[in-house]
Amino acid sequence: MDRTAEEPRDILRESINILKQSPKIFILITLTFIVPLSIAILVHSLYFESLLNLVPIRHQPHQWAKFYIIQFFYIVILFIFSLLSTAAVVFTFASSYTSKPVSFTSTLTAIPRVFKRLFITFLYASLLMIIYNAVFLGCLIGFIMSINADDSTFLYISFVDLFFLFNVHIHVTAIWHLASVVSVLESVYGLAAMKRSKKLLVGNTEPATALVFLYMIICAVIVSIFRSVVMHGSTHRFLFRILAGGFLIVVLVVFNFIGLLTQCIVYYICKSYHREKIDKGALHEHLGSYLGEYVLLQSSIEMGNVNI
Predict the structure, then answer these.
(1) Which of 133, 146, 180, 221 has the most other CB atoms within 10 Å of its CB?
(2) Which of 46, 47, 64 is nearest to 55 (CA)?
(3) Alpha helical stretches, state H, the chain
(4) Which DSSP category does 202 fall into?
(5) Domain coordinates of the chain in residue numbers?
(6) Beta bridge partners of 301
(7) What is the rounded distance in angstroms from the CA atom of residue 232 to the CA atom of residue 79?
(8) Reduced to 3 states, what is the DSSP secondary structure of residue 277?
(9) Is there a contact between 170 and 212 (Cβ–Cβ < 8 Å)?
(10) Contact 61, 10 (CB under 8 A)
(11) What is the pLDDT of residues 6-51, one digit of tens each?
(12) Global pTM?
């Protein structure tokens, strides 16, 4: 039997074994970081419409200021827990993969150093997103103007531009997610991690971006159902709304956890596709550096030749 065809299953099998070996740690990580992240996402979706209602049609600066202050703190909370969740899951998963003794306490000890690297990578990714949003906004304005002007040619061009930019957004998001894993498991971070991530995705860009798109769609569906049931549901079915809201929170928590694990698996698969060495000893030492152990950082890791 072709060994290459077995390797993706081997990676998934080993990932499942890791979860079975350390269920308590992953449950604690989920409760500590992923649950608050998921609740923040759903609560914001629940009250975003109400926040907009705070801003009247007439110009009132203090209402706009209140709106932007609330939005700012939401974004800060969202990305802090997002980075903390990524740091905890990636570090714990990789430690278990290398058979390095890991506990919830050791994960918490490593997070401050991991968080710093992830935050720097996040800043570069945010810069790309700001540039992207500026271009997207310009194309969106052009699209709206072409509708009002009834210019079919300009409308078509604007639509194509928006479609292209949407694909760019998904691609940049895929690079960002993989760069987050790179920032934890290798000796690079920031712009170097983004470049490294882009290189790793070569040959697996389409399946990786498809996973990102699927994640975005499922999140949007969960958020939409949550708003429809909890916010706009019948007041006479209060208990049902509470139970449904709690169920959707659990679904989003589980889905976010699976998404973080998928990032780790995609990293190993991309490394394998490029036939790079997976040196568990080097990775073991690299992870130890986050706990204050003095080591020479290395990043050569291999897992064979596989595709997503």
Answers:
(1) 180
(2) 64
(3) 3-21, 23-29, 35-54, 61-97, 104-149, 152-185, 191-201, 205-226, 238-273, 280-289
(4) T
(5) 3-302
(6) 278
(7) 28
(8) strand
(9) yes
(10) no
(11) 355 666 677 777 777 778 899 999 999 999 999 888 887 766 666 5
(12) 0.79
